[in-house]
Write a structure and sequence with these properties.
274 residues, alpha+beta, Aminopeptidase, 2 domains, 32% strand
């Protein structure tokens, strides 16, 4: 078994593995991750060159994320997952990252705990459908200079600068913005994802979610990952007719982050980037 850098030719076999596990992953994530932090994206290859597993990671300012850790079914039980995980963790540590984040399934949580990760929240996956019947105007104001505004709001939730990730999602999605919040509506296969989504006021979050739902074509599937400890978000999503379709644990290792879940309504990706 060889551990070496993840390559663009690995996209297709990875997506096949992810589909078998019912993961929702879009190829844009790997394009972004390979351009932003290639040293933290690793692949395990069998002797014949077959992709046996992979992992990705991403450095923000003083924090980082590990995601997309997967091992093909026929190669499990050989320690490949742990080897890949340690490779990503060491890549982040080499860059001086103080806090490492990840989301964990029940199956993976024990591995992460053995490496010093602690649970800080539960991430709830919500699903709904688009409600656009006609073009709406004026529901959400567009405040100029969105780069600065988005970063200022996002850092209130995560306690770190994530400018590259925010720019990448805005570039591929539709930005909905007010002075005290923003949401990005991103394509995700045949569906749409709402996120990143942060708001400093409950009323702003309500306006943004309503605008997002009415910006998506009627019946289009929508997904959103949000922290369970944001009670205002739970009430809002229930009120707007969204339904819970899954849960994972939000975990960290290292310096305790200045994490403010009350400002966080949707992650920027469905598991791999935060």
């Amino acid at each position: 078994m060889i551990i070496d850098p993840f390559q663009r030719d690995d996209f297709a076999p990875f997506l096949k593995l992810a589909t078998a596990e019912n993961w929702m992953v879009d190829p844009w994530e790997f394009e972004f991750l390979l351009s932003a932090f290639p040293q933290g994206c690793c692949a395990a290859r069998a002797d014949g060159g077959e992709l046996a597993g992979c992992v990705t990671s991403l450095k923000h300012g003083c924090s980082g994320w590990i995601g997309n850790l997967i091992v093909a079914e026929g190669f499990r039980g050989r320690g490949i997952g742990q080897t890949l995980f340690v490779s990503a963790l060491e890549a982040l540590r080499a860059e001086g990252v103080e806090t490492v984040w990840l989301t964990a399934s029940k199956l993976g949580q024990a591995l992460y705990e053995r490496h010093g990760f602690k649970s800080i929240d539960t991430i709830v996956r919500w699903s709904g459908t688009g409600r656009q019947r006609h073009i709406r105007r004026g529901a959400v104001a567009n405040c100029g200079g969105h780069d600065t505004l988005l970063n200022e709001i996002d850092v209130q939730a995560w306690g770190d600068q994530r400018a590259a990730l925010l720019a990448a999602t805005v570039a591929r999605g539709k930005l909905l913005q007010q002075a005290t919040g923003f949401a990005v509506l991103q394509p995700c296969g045949d569906a749409l994802q709402i996120g990143p989504f942060s708001a400093l006021e409950d009323a702003t979050a309500d306006d943004l979610l309503k605008a997002a739902l009415q910006s998506a074509a009627l019946g289009t599937k929508l997904y959103l990952d949000a922290p369970a400890s944001n009670r205002a978000a739970l009430r809002l999503f229930n009120r707007r007719g969204l339904r819970i379709s899954g849960r994972t644990r939000l975990m960290y290792r290292g310096r305790k982050p200045d994490y403010r879940a009350e400002f966080l309504y949707g992650l920027a990706s469905l598991g791999s980037c935060g």
